[in-house]
Amino acid sequence: MTYKGVLFDFSGTLFRIESAGSWLRAVLDEAGIVLPPEEVRRYAMRLAVAGALPGGTAPQQVPPDLAEVWATRDESAERHRAAYTGLARTVPLPSPALYDALYERHMTPDAWRPYADAAEVLSTLRREGIGVAVVSNIGWDLRPVFRAHGLDTWVDAYVLSYEHGVQKPDTRLFAAACELLGQDPHDCLMVGDDRRADGGAVELGCSVHFVEHLPVEERPAGLRPVLEPASRGPLP
C-alpha cells in the first residue's frame, strides 16, 4: 500500500521544548529578577523534577490534589493550565507572578525548536501529494509555533485535544484528522513519540511509527524514515 496521509504528534516528534534552565532564565530576565547562576540551576532542576515544564520530563510524583486534573489535563485549556501551574507551585519561587509567567512562556514560539529534519520531511510529503495533519494532546493553540518556524505551510489540518474535549489515545482524535485529510484511516500513518497515546491510532486502523523523544541535537534525522514508507508501504 501507499500512505495517503501522515499524522504527526507535536511535542517530542516535530518540535522539542527548550530546557528547564532556558525556560526559567527567560522568565526571570523578563521579570527583571537577578539570581546567582547556581540558584537558577537549582530552581530549574526542581521544576523539571516536578514535571512543571509542558513537553519536558514527566513529574516524578503528582500530588494527590492534582491527580484528577493531571489525568485529564489535555481536555481543556483550563485544565492544562491548572495542572502545570499547580505542579510549578510545588516549587517555591522568588515571586508568585513567576508561575503564570512560566506557563505563558512555554506557549511562545521562542520556547520551541523544530527537529532538524522536520521541514524536509513535511515539505517532501507535500510535494508527493500526501496529506499532513498534526494530532496533539495539548491545552493551547500551537498553530503560531508552526507559523513562526515556517512549518505551517506544509500542514493541512490540526487536531488539538483541548479543542475536541478528548485526548489521545481516544480514537476520535485520529478519526477527525483522517476525515479532515479526506482519507481512510487504513491509508494513514501516525508518527509520534508516546506508545500509549499515539499508539491509539492502531485501534482505528492506522499504521504507527514511533520516534524517540530526545533533545534536538541528539535526533538529527529521526523523522526521515517516514519518507520511504510514505511512497512504498508501512513501516514494520
TrEMBL record:
Species this protein is from: Streptomyces hebeiensis
Keyword Coiled coil: no
Identification of the protein by name: HAD-IA family hydrolase
Gene3D superfamilies: HAD superfamily/HAD-like
Parts of the chain that traverse the membrane: none
Highest taxon listed in the record's lineage: Bacteria
Keyword hit for Hydrolase: yes
Pfam families: Hydrolase
Keywords tagged on the record: Hydrolase
